[in-house]
């Protein structure tokens, strides 16, 4: 087997001529019998890396996936392209499970999706011992790491499975995000043997990132969903209570929205997710229980109503926007109360002290992201270890045209106050001292005698807190990794105190602004795609007609619309306006099975717009 066979399969089943960055290296390694670890951002095509080898290798490829919904979506998509795949999970009856196991044993399928818990079944392990398993693909592999943001003990059963399989299959692990520590942990815990490692880069060029501080969250959400009417989006909240409250508010605006959290029944969660997948509901309000591995490609925006616990979790969730490569927007609505909530979660967890210290460190980095004046995309990719990353040019910070203000004098007051208390107190206490607060605890600790007491009395305590966090985000200060973090100096303070360096900060604005994408030149508050979800210029009418046809076909087959064609494929139809089946083969994303099944119906619509 060589890469030319893989390319032929790519053209035949998926309708693409070339592999994306990183795919070729990983596929070649798997076909050569080597273990692999692929770190590829959402939308980069991780699944292709094991689905193509599954077509070329003998036997059935086992795919371990964490969520039932993901399995169903991917199996539906594979079957639609002409690839034989199935899943076995708890959604099936005993009769259905036994029937599928018999079909697997008979060699009917090329890919079999299961949850890691299934590997603990002796009956299932017996099935696997009786068939040829050339490849085991582990999706969402960060779940195996205790240092990842979504550790699942059930993933530890994967290694026990390997002892049952002879010969040992090739192991392929994939995830969208992983720090160096998590990468090493994945390699160790899955017992990968000298794996070929590929990290394609964390930057998502189609995503516009924004952090909104000092905003009334309800007012912001109301305006945003109205401006983005007709677009699919996810609004994340940190607690069930906040999901219920936010959902009620969005619904009161006349927006048809779903809700999803662990307190709802499994049936209700399933119905809501199916409705969202099929575009019957365009907006969903959810906790982080929703979304890992969700394969919906046309999510145009992700709003975090509350700050997540760390940057890894945030980027995983925000990355569900724009999986199809079309523009997507990611907004974090920051509030200091979010920090209190996340600290509560850490303290209530069963983690040991070392894990809690690590969680506090990650939370501090998340807070720094919320306050940084640097490029937001660059901040994230540097967090994952890409030190040479470039500014994205389209995030809220890159396109911020506010004047830079010299805040050196105020920064020196902050530094002097921290030195005066010998770097022993947290942000809030430092802010109270600088504000000159009439506080009994301050007097009890003699902090009112600090020579910087009241030096920033013209500012509100909230503004001083934001200033301190900005100095942390810009690297002048650091916070200790604890429940009550203490503010301490970094080496950068010397630049200001000893070398007469200057500190600059953009002027805080009264109201959050609408940012303009450098790529589209349009305000993200009013940007439209077709009649609200994925088009460009003169093609909007045709794009809407193609979307309507896709929805009709999807409803008839009880499939999510994106399983038939992604928005990006419809966009290319609009640009090329194919008139024959031969023309349709030039459209990216149309393989032979989909051309035979859907080509005629789409050509009828396209010919009307010739």
From TrEMBL:
One of its GO terms (biological process) is SOS response. Residues 27-196 form the Helicase ATP-binding domain. GO terms for cellular component: bacterial nucleoid; cytoplasm; replisome. Its cofactor is Mg(2+); Zn(2+). Keywords: ATP-binding, DNA damage, DNA recombination, DNA repair, DNA-binding, Helicase, Hydrolase, Isomerase, Metal-binding, Nucleotide-binding, Zinc. It holds the Pfam family RecQ_Zn_bind. Gene3D superfamilies: HRDC domain, P-loop containing nucleotide triphosphate hydrolases, Winged helix-like DNA-binding domain superfamily/Winged helix DNA-binding domain. The keyword Magnesium does not apply. Residues 517-530 have a biased composition (Low complexity). It comes from the Bacteria. Its EC number is 5.6.2.4. It catalyses: Couples ATP hydrolysis with the unwinding of duplex DNA by translocating in the 3'-5' direction. Belongs to the helicase family. RecQ subfamily. This is DNA helicase RecQ. The gene is recQ.
């Amino acid at each position: 087997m060589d890469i030319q066979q893989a390319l032929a399969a790519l053209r035949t089943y998926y309708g693409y001529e070339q592999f994306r960055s990183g795919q070729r290296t990983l596929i070649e390694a798997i076909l050569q019998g080597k273990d692999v670890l692929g770190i590829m951002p959402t939308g980069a095509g991780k699944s292709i890396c094991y689905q193509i080898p599954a077509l070329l290798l003998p036997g059935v490829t086992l795919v371990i996936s964490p969520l039932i919904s993901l399995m169903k979506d991917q199996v539906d998509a594979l079957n639609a392209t002409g690839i034989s795949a199935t899943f076995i999970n708890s959604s099936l009856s005993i009769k259905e499970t036994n029937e599928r196991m018999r079909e697997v044993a008979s060699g009917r399928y090329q890919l079999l999706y299961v949850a890691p818990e299934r590997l603990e079944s002796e009956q299932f392990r017996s099935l696997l011992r009786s068939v040829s398993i050339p490849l085991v693909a582990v999706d969402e592999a960060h779940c195996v790491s205790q240092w990842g943001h979504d550790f699942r003990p059930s993933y530890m059963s994967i290694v026990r499975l390997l002892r049952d399989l002879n010969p040992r299959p090739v192991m392929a692990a994939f995830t969208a995000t992983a720090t160096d520590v998590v990468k090493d942990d994945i390699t160790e815990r899955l017992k990968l043997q000298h794996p070929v490692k590929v990290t394609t880069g964390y930057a998502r060029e189609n995503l516009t990132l924004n952090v909104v501080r000092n905003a009334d969250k309800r007012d912001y959400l109301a305006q945003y969903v109205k401006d983005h009417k007709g677009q699919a989006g996810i609004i994340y909240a940190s607690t069930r209570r906040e999901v219920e409250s936010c959902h009620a508010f969005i619904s009161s605006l006349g927006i048809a929205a779903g809700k999803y959290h662990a307190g709802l029944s499994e049936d209700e969660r399933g119905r809501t997710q199916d409705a969202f997948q099929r575009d019957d509901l365009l907006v969903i309000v959810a906790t982080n229980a929703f979304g890992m591995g969700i394969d919906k490609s046309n999510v145009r925006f992700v709003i975090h109503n509350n700050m997540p616990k760390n940057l890894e979790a945030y980027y995983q969730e925000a990355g569900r926007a724009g999986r199809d490569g079309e523009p997507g927007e990611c907004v974090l609505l920051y509030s200091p109360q979010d920090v209190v909530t996340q600290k509560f979660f850490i303290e209530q967890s069963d983690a040991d002290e070392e894990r809690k210290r690590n969680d506090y460190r990650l939370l501090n980095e998340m807070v720094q992201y919320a306050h940084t004046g640097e490029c937001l995309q660059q901040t994230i990719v540097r967090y994952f270890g890409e030190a040479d990353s470039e500014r994205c040019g389209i995030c809220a910070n890159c396109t911020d045209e506010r004047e830079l203000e010299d805040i050196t004098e105020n920064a020196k007051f902050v530094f002097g106050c921290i030195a005066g208390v010998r770097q022993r107190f947290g942000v809030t206490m430092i802010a109270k001292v600088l504000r000159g607060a009439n506080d009994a605890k301050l007097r009890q600790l003699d902090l009112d005698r600090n020579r910087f007491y009241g030096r920033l009395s013209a500012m509100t305590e909230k503004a001083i807190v934001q200033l301190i966090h900005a100095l942390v985000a810009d690297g002048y200060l650091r916070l200790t990794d604890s429940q009550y973090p203490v503010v301490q100096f970094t080496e950068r303070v010397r630049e200001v105190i000893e070398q007469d360096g200057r500190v600059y900060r953009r002027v805080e604005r009264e109201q959050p602004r609408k940012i303009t994408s450098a790529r589209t030149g349009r305000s993200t508050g009013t940007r439209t795609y077709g009649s609200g979800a994925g088009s460009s210029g003169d093609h909007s009418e045709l794009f809407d007609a193609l979307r309507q046809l896709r929805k009709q076909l999807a409803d008839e087959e009880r499939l999510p619309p994106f399983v038939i064609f992604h928005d990006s494929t419809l966009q290319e139809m609009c640009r090329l306006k194919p008139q024959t089946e031969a023309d349709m083969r030039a459209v990216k994303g149309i393989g032979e099975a989909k051309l035979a099944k859907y080509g005629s119906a789409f050509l009828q619509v396209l010919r009307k717009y010739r």
